[in-house]
Model the fold of this input.
Amino acid sequence: MSIATIKTVAFQGVDVLDVDVQVQMASGMPAFAIVGLPDKAVAESRERVRASLHALGISLPAKRITINLAPADLSKEGSHYDLPIALGVLAVMNALPAEDIANYIALGELSLDASIRAINGVLPAAMHAAEKNKGLIIPKACGAEAAWAGDIDILAPKNLLQLINHIKGTQVLVKPEAKLKDDRAHTGPDLSEVKGQETAKRALEIAAAGGHNMLMIGPPGSGKSMLASCLPSILPQLSPKEALEVSMIHSLAGSLPEGGLLSRRPFRDPHHSASQPSLIGGGNKAKPGEISLAHNGILFLDEFPEFQRSTLEALRQPLETGSVLVSRVNYHVNYPARFQLIAAMNPCRCGYMGDPEMECTKAPRCGGDYQSKISGPMFDRIDVVVDVPAVQVSDLQTDTPAQSSKSVAQRVLRARQIQSQRYANLGAQYEVNAYANGKILETVAPMDGEAKAFMAQATDKMKLSARAYHRVLRLARTIADLEANASVAAQELTKKHIAEALSYRRTSTRG
Ligand SMILES: Nc1ncnc2c1ncn2[C@@H]1O[C@H](COP(=O)(O)OP(=O)(O)O)[C@@H](O)[C@H]1O
Ligand SMILES: [Mg+2]
Done:
């Protein structure tokens, strides 16, 4: 045979596209060329394939070998083309019966000794193979991950020799099995370890229940970071559908813990010195950023004003749409990025504004300067703003046990069930109050007479914008859902709900 075709895939965002590796061997000057918009890693594939075959005792014939990655106008990135290229070369050399692997999609990186190394993106590739009714040839290290795609034929060899022997029937590869869920317990602190801070804890519970973005403002050492790291312990686990979505993104980024799907909500806390591509996505390699790794979970931005301004502004679009568009040289990719933003900041640069004994001489002007690093539109996307004052000694020394994460998690779960039922009934695409807007918000958050009058008064006095007005309504809805039992989930909002919601508005500066 002088032409062989092996199937593989290319990744574009979370989309998986079919690619054919066509290998032609012809007489002429000995050469080994790869065409079809390969990037550097793909071009170097040549050397790895040559070395791997050499390790098997096969040397390339003195012929002209051309490899075309079709479709030719799609850029090919990554090292997973090694394996299909090697299989194609073996097939044109008649070292491997091509028809036996015609129904497989192959991905894998080769080492110089012909072993097959783990690659990113196996889970989405496996889902794609299942959809197309194809088998899959992948590195052994990725077998457990691929097995989540269901009942497909998976060959997961450790090295090229094992694969050849399997195809020739002299050795049988065991089918990989899906590993049990990665159910590692929450490693952060428990809410009961946070002393005092009752207002902040209450705000955290509300934010968790309704999926609201939240900002904590307080002096250093008051427990802001601690409170944020408690959040995963009070959120419900991922639903199977969410778990798959999240795991696909982590698979593409290569951060899926060996073989297991993620079942806990992601909690990402990038440092403020992180670059924009690492946060938002893209850069040299098209990779999902922190905001996509936080999809269906939490993005915690500590020391909020210290992040680059342009980075913070770039968060606005994903916060609105739940996805992010990353530009590549000649195309765009879209990554899901529906995350809950939890931010923390000191009230000013020195950190002690408002504390008569500790504040510096520049207060309160320095606070205004510091807080103005967060733009108005950014503040507009944060439903809950809460002050976290320094902890009182009496709170630190108290013996009365605080509420545990477990009991709070139960209330959060019930409130979330009420919400998902509500939005499913309305045919909305989301499951929490945080996303309710416009007409749907008006339907789901009716007020009784007293609440209406109170709200009118507050709007006038506090000069609430229309957007702020809706923000208060959304939050009040969540507060009501937290106290409701399922049968009265459609209850009207009362003055009490509205008043509490209003208390989580930004008070320190303009807003
Ligand atoms: N409310 C609190 N209850 C118990 N310990 C606290 C509290 N606040 C702070 N701490 C202690 O101080 C440390 C620093 O708190 P941290 O959350 O990092 O403060 P912040 O982020 O507000 O500067 C915590 O690891 C914890 O040991
Ligand atoms: Mg901190």
